Amino acid sequence: MHKNPEDPEEVPGGFLSDCNPNSLTVIHNCAVDKYLSNSKTFSSFQFERTGYFSVDPDSSDKKLVFNRTVLLKEDAGK
Protein backbone atom coordinates (compact mmCIF):
# COMPACT_ATOMS: atom_id res chain seq x y z
CA MET A 1 0.00 0.00 0.00
CA HIS A 2 1.17 3.46 -0.80
CA LYS A 3 0.44 6.52 1.32
CA ASN A 4 -0.21 8.55 -1.82
CA PRO A 5 -0.59 6.29 -4.88
CA GLU A 6 -0.96 9.32 -7.18
CA ASP A 7 2.44 10.77 -6.16
CA PRO A 8 4.95 9.97 -8.95
CA GLU A 9 7.86 10.28 -6.49
CA GLU A 10 6.39 7.61 -4.20
CA VAL A 11 5.25 5.32 -7.02
CA PRO A 12 7.42 6.13 -10.07
CA GLY A 13 5.39 4.07 -12.56
CA GLY A 14 2.05 4.97 -10.98
CA PHE A 15 0.01 2.67 -8.76
CA LEU A 16 -1.14 0.64 -11.78
CA SER A 17 2.48 -0.47 -12.24
CA ASP A 18 1.88 -2.72 -9.20
CA CYS A 19 -0.84 -4.61 -11.09
CA ASN A 20 -0.09 -7.86 -12.89
CA PRO A 21 -0.50 -7.14 -16.63
CA ASN A 22 -1.60 -10.76 -17.14
CA SER A 23 -4.35 -10.63 -14.52
CA LEU A 24 -7.21 -10.20 -17.00
CA THR A 25 -8.54 -13.48 -18.35
CA VAL A 26 -11.67 -13.43 -20.49
CA ILE A 27 -13.50 -16.69 -21.14
CA HIS A 28 -16.22 -16.42 -23.78
CA ASN A 29 -19.35 -18.56 -24.34
CA CYS A 30 -19.28 -20.34 -20.99
CA ALA A 31 -22.13 -22.54 -19.84
CA VAL A 32 -23.69 -21.49 -16.52
CA ASP A 33 -26.84 -22.39 -14.63
CA LYS A 34 -29.91 -20.51 -15.87
CA TYR A 35 -30.58 -18.94 -12.45
CA LEU A 36 -27.43 -16.80 -12.87
CA SER A 37 -29.16 -14.81 -15.62
CA ASN A 38 -31.23 -13.02 -12.94
CA SER A 39 -28.17 -12.06 -10.87
CA LYS A 40 -27.95 -8.54 -9.50
CA THR A 41 -24.79 -6.44 -9.73
CA PHE A 42 -22.25 -7.27 -7.01
CA SER A 43 -24.04 -10.53 -6.07
CA SER A 44 -21.48 -13.18 -5.07
CA PHE A 45 -21.22 -16.82 -6.10
CA GLN A 46 -18.82 -19.70 -5.62
CA PHE A 47 -17.98 -21.39 -8.90
CA GLU A 48 -17.14 -25.01 -8.18
CA ARG A 49 -13.43 -25.67 -7.61
CA THR A 50 -12.50 -22.25 -9.01
CA GLY A 51 -13.22 -19.44 -6.56
CA TYR A 52 -15.66 -16.75 -5.53
CA PHE A 53 -16.97 -14.33 -8.14
CA SER A 54 -19.15 -11.22 -8.12
CA VAL A 55 -21.38 -9.88 -10.88
CA ASP A 56 -19.76 -6.97 -12.71
CA PRO A 57 -21.72 -3.76 -13.43
CA ASP A 58 -20.91 -4.31 -17.14
CA SER A 59 -23.21 -7.36 -17.16
CA SER A 60 -26.35 -7.27 -19.29
CA ASP A 61 -29.26 -9.59 -20.11
CA LYS A 62 -27.29 -10.87 -23.10
CA LYS A 63 -23.80 -10.94 -21.54
CA LEU A 64 -22.92 -11.85 -17.96
CA VAL A 65 -19.61 -10.60 -16.59
CA PHE A 66 -18.15 -12.06 -13.39
CA ASN A 67 -15.06 -10.87 -11.51
CA ARG A 68 -13.09 -13.36 -9.44
CA THR A 69 -12.72 -11.98 -5.93
CA VAL A 70 -11.15 -15.00 -4.17
CA LEU A 71 -9.15 -17.86 -5.67
CA LEU A 72 -9.59 -21.32 -4.16
CA LYS A 73 -6.23 -22.95 -3.50
CA GLU A 74 -5.67 -26.52 -4.52
CA ASP A 75 -4.79 -29.02 -1.81
CA ALA A 76 -1.17 -29.97 -2.49
CA GLY A 77 -1.69 -33.21 -0.54
CA LYS A 78 -4.23 -34.63 -2.99
UniProtKB/TrEMBL annotation:
Q: One GO BP annotation here?
A: translation
Superkingdom of this entry's organism?
Eukaryota
Q: Which UniProt keywords apply?
A: Protein biosynthesis
Give the InterPro entries listed for this entry: Rbsml_bL25/Gln-tRNA_synth_N, Ribosomal_bL25/Gln-tRNA_synth, tRNA-synt_1c_C2
Where in the sequence is the signal peptide annotated? Answer: none
All copies of domain tRNA synthetases class I (E and Q) anti-codon binding, residue ranges: 5-56
Q: Return the SUPFAM superfamilies for the record.
A: Ribosomal protein L25-like
Q: Per the record's keyword annotation, is Protein biosynthesis included, yes or no? A: yes
In terms of Pfam families, this protein maps to: tRNA-synt_1c_C2
Protein name per Swiss-Prot or TrEMBL = Glutamyl/glutaminyl-tRNA synthetase class Ib anti-codon binding domain-containing protein
What species is this protein from?
Answer: Panagrolaimus davidi
